[in-house]
Amino acid sequence: MNFQNAAFESASGRVEQLPPSSVPEIVFSGRSNVGKSSLINKLLNRKSLARVSAKPGKTGTVNFYRLPECRLVDLPGYGYAKVSASEKLRWAELVEGYLNAGRNIRLVVQIVDFRHMPTQDDLHMIDFLVQAGLPFLIAATKSDKLNKTQRTQQLDAYCTLFEELPDTLLIPFSAVNGEGVEEIRRQIELVCMG
Ligand code: GTP
Ligand code: MG
To answer: Which residue, judged by its Cα, is nearest atom 20 of ligand 1?
Structure first.
């Protein structure tokens, strides 16, 4: 699969605005500011196709990027305290509406911050994915910020935490040094072509 030829397709702020589900979709989910847009840019080898910001809460819409074989879908991040209650509700409805719409979702890349254990919101999201029967993998991002000792510690802790999900892939990732990029691309290829 060629990941170089992506283009922005559309953005939806409401469930009613979602484009029809046709091509396979690869979804990127995670809390606000965890690095979803950066991960997408790294996969696509682009500096700023998906907008990256040091300020959380940047992506408030479901954004679709088109590849010849599939769509990449950037979800609004959850768990950002400073967003107003009404915005939070809109985002929750939008994300749930998207995930529950019976679309052609082939894989959810659930992104967590490798420096920390998953938040309550992350665990809720993972639980939702399990209950909904959506195929997912966990990308543990910002791995560049961990030294060797911390990395081993976090790997151990994550393996223990996800003991009950033995078939779930955990992929350490860094948008800075590119760790994990090829592995995630491979998983996308597997679900799109297979
Ligand atoms: P929202 O759209 O607000 O939900 O955020 P997001 O999840 O799309 O995060 P975004 O990609 O905008 O990145 C947030 C911040 O984290 C930015 O300052 C990025 O430069 C930084 N960042 C993202 N990925 C990495 C990484 O792998 N390593 C390091 N060191 N920083 C990263
Ligand atoms: Mg974003």
So the answer is: 54
Q: Measuring CA to CA, which residue among 122, 153, 124, 152 is closest to residue 138?
A: 122
Q: Tell me the pTM.
A: 0.95
Predicted confidence at residue 140, as pLDDT, reads 98
| Per-residue model confidence (pLDDT) at position 186 | 97
Out of 28, 31, 33, give the residue to mutate to test ligand 1, the one with the largest number of ligand atoms within 8 Å of its CB.
33
Q: Indicate which ligand has the atom closest to the C-alpha of 48.
A: 1
Rounded CA gap, 12 and 136, in Å?
22
CA of 77, closest atom in ligand 1: 4
What are residue 170's phi and psi, to 5 degrees? -115, 115
Q: What are phi and psi of 27, to 5 degrees?
A: -105, 140
> What ligand is nearest to the CA atom of residue 76?
1
CA distance linking residue 34 with residue 15, whole number of Å: 23
In the chain, the domains with their CATH numbers are 7-193 (3.40.50.300)
pLDDT digits (tens, 9 = 90+) for 45-98: 988 887 776 666 666 889 999 999 999 999 988 887 777 888 888 888 899 999
Q: Cα–Cα distances in Å, from 161 out to 83, 118, 144?
A: 29, 9, 22
The letter for the amino acid at 23 is: V
- Summarize pLDDT for 107-133 with one digit per residue, the tens: 999 999 999 999 999 999 999 999 999
CA distance 116 to 132: 25
